[in-house]
């Protein structure tokens, strides 16, 4: 099993504070010591950093954190190998290009006997069930919107609807807690463990669960900032984390949850 | 314009010494200060590190060098922007997946009015002529060998023949000094500037041109090691660098040049 960390923001922000707690889980406060990866969508580009060494003791991760990279969408992953070699090609997040955009994918859980027929347009490089699921999703998205381009993307409602269908279809094969982003939107699906917290002005002081460190978010954000942090398990002790429901698919944009089945139900109840 | 650095080895080796001279050209001994990138093929995986800051002053590049990553194929690039924003999505090397393998591409030179019709399977994320050329190559390779897989790749002769055709076709649009690798083989094409040096047992002491540093290659390599280092311009002063000819396409494998038109001509002369 693995742990996931994601962030979706209105304006570029650093994820460093959350990453500190997350890094500790990579071999220090938790057992996820078989590699880590983090993808940053920065202005007009995407970078992935991968390592098969434990996150907690990685000089590379420390160097990256020191850069204080600002990003609107981040997906990070620490791994505890259940099967499959501890090797780079099995490290999440995975990346593929579709419609002239980078798509980034990360998965927590196991799928059993998930061997979809793939056309060859997107082919796994490694052996993980996760990368197979990602290639399957990319193929189905490409097939559903054959004329889409970066400048003429599918309507968000249509894409979200397809995401729900695909996530449900794959989740039938096992545990499928996932994040998928193209740098603009961030999709999630929860089978068992996923939680998120919304942050906006006025920001508060928050304290990490995994190390005794506090941060005054007010000092690091402006009135215009707004963000959602998503993780396998809550990272801070004094914030209102929302625990995702089993089977719930969400989409985050501009630092807000949108269109989720859960939210949709809430809206219907409120109406 | 930009500078390229590549390495193709029989056994995994570090490129750190060559990288030291190359890093100096990224804003210290030369003017290539608009970002850098390096791709390492490691056992069963590929990592790219990208930065839009000058290589010479990059803490990230220093941290990467400290890791002493061992690799059989490396492609690195430092950029002096001639047109196109200094932004991450325009940083080389570029990466795409084909046949379940990572393919890495880097280009030095400018292409004029190169706007091939692309089917959409491989679409540029940035604005560079380089990434357009890469997508064009990937599409043509995919189309030429539709049944190829990682376990059943095209014959090297056939792939090299296609590489020559494609490189000639693209080079007609301008200057096309390039490197392309799938982690096993490394293709090059030279329009104006490209040179390589072969290293094998017994290794010698070599001295960098760009900084007054020497290295005894014997201390760092064994009898079984064999490698080729390829660069825009020779990196060391006391080795036999072979300057590529204009229009020459080469392929390197296991630390040796193979099948090159130049070598082929030499072989014919010798026969």
From TrEMBL, chains A, B:
Keyword Plastid attributed: no
Alphabetical keyword list: Glutamine amidotransferase
Top-rank lineage group of the source organism: Bacteria
The keyword Repeat is annotated on this UniProt entry: no
Record domain Glutamine amidotransferase type-2: where: 2-271
Protein name as catalogued: Class II glutamine amidotransferase
Source species of the chain: Cellvibrio polysaccharolyticus
